[in-house]
Design brief:
The protein has 137 residues and is α+β, with helices and mostly antiparallel strands. The chain has one domain. The chain is 36% helix and 28% strand. Strands 1, 2, 3, 4 and 5 form a five-stranded antiparallel β-sheet that branches. Strand 2 and strand 3 form a beta hairpin. The relative contact order is 0.15.
């Protein structure tokens, strides 16, 4: 009776272990990317929510329409950088003269000093909107 393993059995086992280890390594990389995207999305949503809450708190008489492209370009008075990795933009639009405002906030991730095109939504970014109406007296 033979004792031990043949060379072919050892090579097959080593190949199977290599394939399994490579698959696990790729899975780790994918999991890290997904976690980074989830973290970015959470931060972006928090920053957008914070700004939307600030806009809701502005007195009615102080609200006025923003320039048309304020949500897509860095427009003075309608953007800031509250976090090193994000730029936050907002716009205010009249829905009904004297009756309602559309408040929108977009938080865009900055990577390597470059701001992505904000007309397309990317992972790790957030856009929130709210309608503010005048309270009945």
């Amino acid at each position: 009776m033979d004792r031990g393993f043949s060379l072919i059995e050892v090579l097959v086992a080593a190949t199977l272990m290599t394939v399994a280890a490579t698959g696990l390594a790729q899975l780790s990389v994918v999991a890290m990317r997904v976690n980074d995207g989830a973290r970015s999305a959470a931060v972006a949503t928090l920053l957008a929510s914070d700004k939307l809450e600030q806009l809701r708190g502005v007195a009615w008489a102080e609200l006025g329409p923003s320039p048309p492209d304020a949500l897509f370009e860095n427009t003075t008075g309608y953007f800031d950088a509250p976090h090193p990795d994000f730029i936050r933009r907002w716009s205010i639009e009249s829905l009904a003269p004297g009756g309602a405002w559309l408040l929108q906030v977009s938080v865009i991730r900055v990577e390597a000093g470059r701001v992505h095109d904000s007309s397309r939504r990317r992972s790790g970014e957030a856009r929130l909107a709210d309608v503010r109406t005048r309270k009945a007296s």
